[in-house]
Amino acid sequence: MSAIIVALAGMVVFALGYRFYSKFVAEKIFRLDPNYVTPAHRYKDGVDFVPTNKFVLWGHHFTSVAGAAPILGPAIAVYWGWLPALLWVVLGTVFAAGVHDFGTLVLSVRNKGQSVGTLANKLIGQRAKILFLFIILILVLMVNAVFAWVISNLFIKFPASVFPVFIQIPLAIWIGTAVYKRQKKMLVPSLVALAVMYIAAVVSSKVSFLQIDLVKYMGGAEGAGLFGLGAVSSAFFIWIIILMVYVYFASTLPVWRLLQPRDFINSHQLVVGLGILYLGLLFANPTITAPMTNATSDVSWFPLLFITIACGAISGFHGLVSSGTSSKQLNKETDARFVGYLGAVGEGILALVSIVAVITFFPNKDAFLATYSSFGAANGSGLTVFVQGASKLATSLHIPADIATTIVSIIVISFAATTLDTSVRLMRYIIAELGMEYKMPKLAKKHVATSVAVLSSAALVLLPQGPNGFGSGGYLLWPLFGTANQLLAGISLLLIAVWLKRLGRNYLVAIIPMIFLLFMTLLAMFKQVLFEWSWFGSNSNWLLFIFGAIIFVFAIWIILTAISALSSNQKISVDEE
Question: Which residues are in the CstA N-terminal domain (predicted)?
Answer without folding.
Answer: 3-363, 378-524
